[in-house]
Amino acid sequence: QKEVEQDPGPLSVPEGAIVSLNCTYSNSAFQYFMWYRQYSRKGPELLMYTYSSGNKEDGRFTAQVDKSSKYISLFIRDSQPSDSATYLCAMSVLSGANNLFFGTGTRLTVIP
Amino acid sequence: DSGVTQTPKHLITATGQRVTLRCSPRSGDLSVYWYQQSLDQGLQFLIQYYNGEERAKGNILERFSAQQFPDLHSELNLSSLELGDSALYFCASSVEASGGEQYFGPGTRLTVT
């Protein structure tokens, strides 16, 4: 079993829809949770960064972390064609090695 | 633009050869990470350096090595290349040794023929 599981999609939604992306994980030591957006094999771009449980909002993006369920989500409101990309969840432990453990990524297409 | 730079963008080489990938972290960042992204494996952590010292090792092959120089730029050396080493290689940087956001460079696409 992989430490981070993510539905690879693909996911297609109409413009303006609310998108929900999710990851589950098995390692309870994960404390930092991130969402990255990657356009066609370019470098991953950091979208959201959260520490421990809770919600964080930034514009049209909301990240949620539920450590009791080992489940994180990214919501995109009023989705735009420019949001079409692969979304990667990533997480790391509190101290020691800081390497990120990534999900496989979900490919999202927003249809105009 | 994340502020992390990587060169070269593309590299095509033959099996058995050796290549060097270069990374310059964001200004002020002391940690450098190397990741490999292949179609079947996703993004995999290779190695981390913090202020010139090796900090953590992941799934890095013995044929691969890295170092971080006093000016904080880093190089990833890949030797005895095999077809399966063809992948995107990303460098990321962060301020701290642990915790904190990691910012990725544009990557180097390596093709081994």
Distance between the termini of chain A: 37 Å
* Helix-strand pattern of chain A: EEEEEEEEEEE
- Elements of chain B, N to C (H/E): EEEEEEEEEEE
Number of helices of chain A: 0
What count of helical segments of chain B does DSSP give? 0
Estimate the mean pLDDT confidence of chain A.
Answer: 92
The total strand number of chain A stands at: 11
Radius of gyration of chain B: 13 Å
Please report which band the strand proportion of chain B falls in: under 5%, 5-15%, 15-25%, 25-35%, 35-45% or over 45%.
over 45%
Q: Which structural class fits the helix and strand makeup of chain A?
A: mainly beta
Q: What oligomerization state is this entry in?
A: heterodimer
The shape of chain B, in one word, is globular
Note poorly predicted spans of chain A. Answer: none
The helicity of chain A comes to under 10%
Unreliable spans of chain B are none
Biggest interface and residues each:
A-B, 28 and 31 residues
Q: Main beta sheet of chain B, described?
A: 7 strands, mixed
Cα-based radius of gyration of chain A, to the nearest Å: 13 Å
Taking the alpha carbons of the first and last residues of chain B, their distance comes to 31 Å
